[in-house]
Amino acid sequence: LIDDVELLPPYRGKRFGLAAVHRTIDVFGPWNCLVVIALYPPQFCEYRDNTEWKKKMQVDSFVKDEESARARLEQYWCLLGFERIWDSRYICALCTNNKHPSLKEVCPDF
Which of 44, 56, 73, 75 has the smallest set of CB atoms within 10 Å of its CB? Predict the structure, then answer.
């Protein structure tokens, strides 16, 4: 279960999150694994009601609509081969037995 992936503002937009999760899958999930990731935009999580965190992460620049934010997260993780499962709005999964993109395909600059 990938619970959280957070990147500081200078590292966003460079696919570092995708690269980190791709590498995690390579290391921990090479055979018959189901990797699950939650689609919970952090700006809408109650536990993130922390002024210092919001300032550091520049939450004001995040998408304001929860459904739009969730859709963006789903599109992002689908680049690695994750698919929404169980008719859920909140969970995507990737089976490591299935073909998923290589790191070069997902992050050509790496």
Answer: 75
